[in-house]
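Recap quiz, item 2
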Amino acid sequence: MVTGKPLNIMAVSGSLRADSSNTAILKYLQKAVPQHNFWIYDGLDKLPHFNPALDTDPSPVQVQDLRDLIADADGLIICTPEYAFGVPGSLKNMLDWTVSSGSLVNKPVALITASSVGENAHASLIKTLEVLTARVVDEGTLLIPFIRTKMNAANEITDTQTERDIQNVLTALLAEIV
Ligand SMILES: Cc1cc2nc3c(=O)[nH]c(=O)nc-3n(C[C@H](O)[C@H](O)[C@H](O)COP(=O)(O)O)c2cc1C
């Protein structure tokens, strides 16, 4: 993987399940780049429901924490399932909190959608990220269908092509930042 100065990478899992395959993918990538400061955001379920009336100065403390973490990040990697043909509500809620702050403007972002099918959430997220004027990385978006067939019961990736694909996504994100 890319070497050089340590980069700050913020990872966001769209699944809140302790046993999540999406979070497992992010943990795999975290281990792959020990030379970088790669953290997995754990505040998704603590954010208030987005309400423009709460989007004041100062903003709710969890929202300010989110915005500070994004500001510290050189780039983001989102890894998410699809629910009911759409983006998980908690992840969309997080993205809604970044609208007024412009936190994602020009921020390099990679996106992995790992789900049973996932194509609706994947397309919808790309559209949302574009509207937020995030810098969605070329070669940095990946749809992984049938994710459960590509991992074992211990949430280890068993499919070598998937391993390669997710590494390539992270490499593309790092290359965009450097
Ligand atoms: C309520 C619910 C709705 C779901 N809807 C979809 C769906 O519309 N499309 C899809 O591809 N998978 C759907 N799934 C399957 C999830 O994508 C799959 O369980 C995935 O592995 C969850 O990710 P995780 O392991 O990171 O939690 C749904 C799962 C749940 C629990």
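The longest strand covers residues 135-144.
The helical segments are 21-32, 61-72, 89-96, 119-131, 160-177.
End of item.
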